[in-house]
Amino acid sequence: MTKSAKIYGLIALWFLILLFAITISLFVGSTGVTWKIDNQLDWTIFYKLRIPRTLLALIAGMGLVISGQIYQTILNNPLADSFTLGLASGATFGSALAVFIGVSVWFVPLFSIFFSLLTLIVIVFITETMVKTFHVATMILSGIFIGAFFNSALYILLLLKPDKVNSMVSYMFGSVSSAEKLTVEITGGVTLICILILFGMSHFIKMIQLGDDKAITLGVNVRLISWCCLLIAAIMTAVIISFTGIIGFIGMIVPQVVRRVYKVPISIQMILNLLIGGSLLLIADTVGRVILSPIQIPVGIVLSIIAIPIMMYLMITEQRKKENH
After folding, report:
1. pTM of the full predicted structure?
2. Which residues pair with 292 in a beta bridge?
3. Mean pLDDT, consecutive 10-residue segments, the chain of 325 residues?
4. Superfamily of domain 3-324
5. Which residues form a coiled coil (predicted)?
């Protein structure tokens, strides 16, 4: 079997897994709909609840994983993600602030997006001011410090208005249970546009992987391409987080596993990340809905339980690999 045939077979396999994940998400859950839909109530639940929830989980999984891949590739750091860069903390604080001041529910996502992008701008400014060049370590450290600052500010908000604790805290664990048609349309539209742009830039991203010097000799404006990719990934992440809350680890774990297990070009990695990310989030959300039914566990908690052992394993194997070399 040729290499191309193996790649196509691999993509087909994960596409089938994704279809399976979509199916179980649509027909399995705690709201009463099973494989048989034979009355008006079931149809209402199916169209008003299950379809939007499934689509939002699919969009969130794909968007968060592809953005994680971009962060890790551009910054050349397997730990780079919206969380280590502080963007998720900024988005969380923005949403909590909106709840704190009592704005309309539809303005909460705007606060989240604003503070997430503001965090990126602050990190870029700090990095540029400190080292006058593109320095990965400084950027990651700046993100961790900014994230800690927003977490502290969030705790102050909780102390000032303890009656808002439930609203603020529930947003921090990540969930797709509040999905609606408009939510899906906004996140789906923004995510699709961002993914298409990133695929169009995959050739330049591949050259940046060769190293800055080689990329520059090939005519690539490394600085411009890098910041454009980071900005696109940040926008996509901010929009998703603004509607789903903080869904951790998936954007950090999946790209690492794909890169280690499948030695394929960057564009194929992106396709696999989309398929695996969407499948994983759909399955995690379904598990959260049914395992303690009728209690629903937020998908962010389910993913954390799954991802933390995997993260520990990756860290241990990475350390052993370095020692062997």
Report:
1. 0.87
2. 295
3. 82 94 82 57 78 94 94 82 82 81 76 85 77 64 84 84 67 81 90 95 85 78 85 88 83 88 88 94 91 83 82 69 61
4. ABC transporter involved in vitamin B12 uptake, BtuC (1.10.3470.10)
5. none
